[in-house]
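User: Hi! I'm working on a homework problem where we have to compare a predicted structure to a textbook description. Could you give me the structure for the chain below?
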Amino acid sequence: MALPLAPAALALGKRIPWKYVGVAAVVVGVGFYVYHLKLTVANLQTTVAEQETTIARKDSEIVGLKGSVVSQNNAVEQWRLIAQAKQSQAADALREAEEQSARADRMIERLQTSGAKTCEEGINLIDEALGL
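Assistant: Happy to help. Predicted structure tokens:
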């Protein structure tokens, strides 16, 4: 079984240098393998660069979101403080209203028990009860 090169080489009366043909085949194979590895490395480098770009973009998005969350937390805290102040004001107003109601009850009781004869006596008793 001879290769197609064999009849041409035999026709010229030469022997085929199989040793060199084998070495050439090995060199071509190794060269192709190295070329394939270089292409693979280049593709991997491109993929890594794209992934690094994506990671950087996502990191900046995360930083932006963190800033937004911090801003929203600050706004929530401000509203909480406002609500707390309003609640405190409402509690103070309720206390004041309860005190005034108690004073009015005492004033009505004093007016009923004192039996003020004139309007002026009633006004004086009311002023006295209110602390005026």
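For your comparison, note the following. The radius of gyration is 51 Å. The mean pLDDT is 84. Good luck with the assignment!
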